[in-house]
TrEMBL record:
Residues 481-573 form the Histidine kinase domain. InterPro entries: HATPase_C_sf, HATPase_dom, His_kinase_dom, Sensor_HK_TwoCompSys, Sig_transdc_His_kin-like_C. The chain crosses the membrane at residues 12-35, 140-161, 173-197, 203-222, 229-248, 254-275, 287-308. It comes from the Bacteria. It catalyses: ATP + protein L-histidine = ADP + protein N-phospho-L-histidine. GO terms for molecular function: protein histidine kinase activity. Its EC number is 2.7.13.3. This is histidine kinase. Keywords: Kinase, Membrane, Transferase, Transmembrane, Transmembrane helix, Two-component regulatory system. One of its GO terms (biological process) is phosphorelay signal transduction system.
């Protein structure tokens, strides 16, 4: 603890301890000196062994200092009077002549406290002196009982505000037990006059001492083992009291030993706990030590230094619970303020960390979006190259080989070049119309194809029966649709001998889109076409493109009845949600 105190500061520690002592003894001196007795000590005290009081003209009163039970006062020449603790009694002269002898005070119930400090004199001055004793012995005790009890109950009632703090709970119970112990000590014997009352009184006292240990334990950092030991010691003390009552019928012989043992154990544990506490929190440890020293010095004052009954009668230990309670509450307030400051610092640090995390996440998100954009661009580039290789590249490659070998006529070369140009236009249109509804995308396809078909003498009809807004297809699926329709129109131009081609879009069952391409040409037998070498390649390509789109293609034709291509394409969920 020396190293800790050196770090915290010996001067601050000493100032804290002396400040608590100064506060307590200033309060005690204010009470004692501010409410001094109205009689000079000794001026009206009855002399021992003598009659002690002559007849007076004014009202005369009597008061016995330190009386705990009623007693009868006999003064020669005066009527016998009953004196009560901390009360003045009016004396009346006796009609009989004063007999010889000295005055006496006889207890009605033994023991009744001091029987030699009896004062008699003017009614008003003796009454003020008795009132002063009543204030010290009873009013101050009731004040301590009320303050301790109310503060203890207030702490327990306010537990939800502190989220049921263990320290606040134990402190509240400690204050209630201090209040109960003060009541039992000062008034319990009169209010509960039965044989087993000492068991109740001292049982509450030792339970209170156990809560003192629990409070120190909570202050110094809770240890469950120390708490169980404190409660076990209280139970042992109570068991010893029960055994003393059963064996001897009185607890008086064992109480001094139990008191000494309890105080020794409590002091040893308090010092050990405060030493442990000082390693982490020297400031609170010193303040708790200052509170304990107030209790110790007040007890030493009452036992060793407190003046005789002829002097001030207010015991310092009567004020100790009330003042130490306020000191404990002050310490709780300091710790609460410290916890609040630490919470504010932790919240500020957490906010700073959150801001840093937000900035980091924002940078990561921006980087991730950039990477996703690059990946999408690379994927689109790869798909575009693949489409060009499969479409235009394939057409031009076959055209180059056939041209070198001289297998194509000029008309066939022109048709192949036209197919390459058409595929390039399909790719451009698919990219342009990828964000457009399907009806607009097909209308663009019809506008691109009808001029070419018109030069061949073929009419191109377009109808759309889709609800607005129409669904959309992504660029890859739209390109596959364009190529499929392009292949069907090319077959019609090569083999169909048709005069009219019709393109229609309509809804189909199961959230699908139905696109049909039909002509009025000569038709063919699909089975014979697939079975003939080289003739069914266009139909196979169309089936492959339909499969790439996730759709279903039906080819309906017969000789002399034209051709009908029916493609059912599933609609994407994203486009359904947008609709």
């Amino acid at each position: 603890m020396t190293v800790t105190l050196r770090r915290w500061g010996w001067r601050r520690a000493l100032a804290t301890v002396l400040g608590a002592q100064l506060l307590f003894w200033s309060f005690y001196a204010l009470i004692v000196l501010g409410f001094h007795p109205a009689v000079a000590w000794g001026d009206y005290r009855l002399p021992a062994g003598r009659a002690g009081l002559a007849s007076t003209n004014g009202p005369t009163g009597a008061w016995a200092a330190g009386l705990s039970e009623p007693a009868v006062l006999h003064i020669p020449g005066w009527q016998p009077a009953i004196l009560y603790p901390a009360h003045m009694t009016l004396l009346s002269p006796s009609e009989r002549s004063a007999a010889g002898g000295a005055w006496s005070l006889t207890c009605l119930r033994s023991p009744c406290g001091a029987t030699d400090a009896v004062y008699a004199g003017p009614y008003d001055r003796i009454g003020k002196a008795a009132g002063w004793e009543r204030f010290q012995r009873f009013d101050m005790v009731w004040l301590a009982i009320a303050v301790e009890g109310l503060l203890g109950m207030a702490l327990l009632v306010l537990l939800p505000l502190s989220r049921f703090s263990r320290l606040q709970t134990i402190t509240g119970l400690f204050m209630i037990l201090v209040s109960a112990d003060a009541w039992f000590t000062a008034f319990g014997a009169d209010a509960l006059p039965y044989a087993w009352f000492p068991l109740l009184r001292y049982g509450v006292e030792y339970l209170m001492l156990a809560t003192v240990a629990l409070t120190v334990n909570a202050f110094a950092g809770w240890q469950a083992r120390a708490a169980r030991i404190a409660l076990a010691c209280s139970a042992i003390a109570f068991t010893v009291l029960i055994a003393a009552m059963l064996v001897r019928g009185d607890v008086a012989p064992v109480v001094p030993l139990l008191d000494a043992t309890a105080l020794a154990l409590l002091s040893a544990y308090g010092i050990a706990a405060l030493l442990r506490m000082s390693l982490a929190a020297p400031g609170p440890a010193i303040r708790v030590m200052a509170i304990l020293l107030v209790g110790i010095t007040s007890t030493v004052w009452d036992l060793l230094i407190h003046p005789a009954p002829s002097g001030p009668m207010l015991q310092a230990s009567v004020l100790t619970p009330t003042l130490t309670t306020f000191l404990i509450l002050f310490e709780l307030a300091l710790q609460g303020r410290q916890l609040s400051r630490e919470a504010d610092e932790a919240r500020t640090d957490l906010e700073r960390q959150v801001l840093e995390q937000d900035a980091s996440l924002l940078r990561s998100s921006s980087l991730l979006r950039h990477q996703e954009r690059r990946i999408a661009i690379d994927a689109e580039r790869q798909r575009l190259l693949r489409d060009m290789h499969d479409g235009v590249g394939g057409i031009l490659t076959h055209l180059l080989l056939d041209t070198r070998e001289g297998r194509l006529t000029h008309a066939e070369i022109g048709e192949a070049l036209q197919s390459a140009v058409d595929d390039l236009r399909n790719m451009a249109s698919a990219f342009d119309a990828a964000d457009e509804p399907i009806d607009e995308a097909l209308a663009m396809f019809r506008e691109r194809m009808w001029v070419r078909l018109a030069r061949s003498g073929i009419a191109f009809d377009w109808r759309c029966q889709l609800a607005s807004p129409a669904p959309r297809l992504d660029a890859p699926r739209l390109l596959s649709l364009y190529r499929l329709l392009q292949e069907g129109i090319a077959n019609t131009l090569r083999h169909g001998q048709a005069t009219r081609i019709a393109l229609m879009a309509e809804p189909a069952d199961g959230d699908r889109l139905l696109v049909t391409l039909s002509d009025n040409g000569v038709g063919f037998d699909p089975l014979d076409a697939r079975g003939s070498p080289g003739e069914g390649r266009g139909l196979t390509n169309m089936q492959r493109r339909a499969t790439q789109m996730g759709g279903d293609l039906r080819i309906e034709s017969a000789p002399g009845q034209g051709v009908r291509l029916a493609l059912a394409v599933p609609i994407e969920d994203s486009w359904k949600r947008k609709s």
